[in-house]
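<instruction>
Derive structure tokens from the sequence
<data>
Labelled lines for chain and fold:
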Amino acid sequence: MNKTLLVACAIACGLSLHANAATFAYISSPADGLISQYQLDESNGALSLINKVSAGDQVNPMALSPDGKVLFAALRVKPFQVQSFSIDPETGRLTPRSKAPLAESMAYLSTDRQGRYLLAASYGADLLSVQAIDKADTPSTDIRTYKTGLHAHSLRTDPSNRFAYAGNLGADRVLQYSLDASTGALTPIGEGYVSVPANTGPRHLAFSPDGKFLYVVGEMSGTVSAFSINADSGALTPIAVANGIPERLKLAHGEVRDARNNDLKDDPTPRIWAADLRMSPDGKLLFMSERTSSSVSVFAVDTTHGSLKFLDNYPVQEKQPRNIALSPNGHWLIVTGEKSDKVGSYAVASDGALKRVAEAASGKGALWIEVLQTGGQ
């Protein structure tokens, strides 16, 4: 085959792979027990509702396996369970696979970076859990649990998969552990935590792509705390804090919430209620959702030193946005609203500016988002 034909073949193969690539978003809606599947057109940000599957009452946090073959979804009603779904590699459609018990009602779900363990955090029971995932992608009935301070709110492993960190909202601590890859056991690093200022409310986590830095959103403060990660021990060192709530929002400091006063109905004061935190694929931008003002704040990230700079805050049409998610190319931000009947797609400019470009119907109380790119990566 001559050189011209080889080049033509390579171009054709590249175009074919690109054409076969697809980006899907899976969004849980606990009020109707559904997981809705959307396709995101990464050329223009358009969202299309593809399918809905029944997952179970109060389906809430979800997690994708690292290989993109399985979606795990936690049900927050007794008996507490995790439902797993197989993902069709071509269409992205979900097929119910198996169920396994969970230790408690879980507010957060993730897997380790190798897909060997299911990790979870229980806000109401103040604990973290780890359970092995077998070769059939079914979580074990043998569950390790770890008590925390009041209101554990997240648990994730770092990019190296040697360490795990958790937001402990009610204790104003970020918990730090070593992960035993052979057993899934978590061992506290040092004292087992680093503290943040009182009434910060550490919630969700995000890592820099190179694994050098950890970022934690404060639910009650609307700040993002930055930490460096010791490459040898995994110990965290605070390096910066950035405020994501501009004065124009006129929000008072937040308060700890639980099932009894989640909406603070007896308190008419608009209060900070930050929720999700997402890092752009290139590690240069960080996005934080804020529910009371229905907005998203954007920070610039110093990729060398880990420090943050608040850029701006943008209103979103989705009321009470709990979760947000970025497309794999980083050009689009998907936003859900717990009190919205729409899911929105926003174009992300190079400076982090957001512009709404598309929408699709959502399930009731839509909140958790997982994004998957299939084929052509």
In short: DSSP finds one helix and 28 strands in the chain. The helical segments are 3-20.
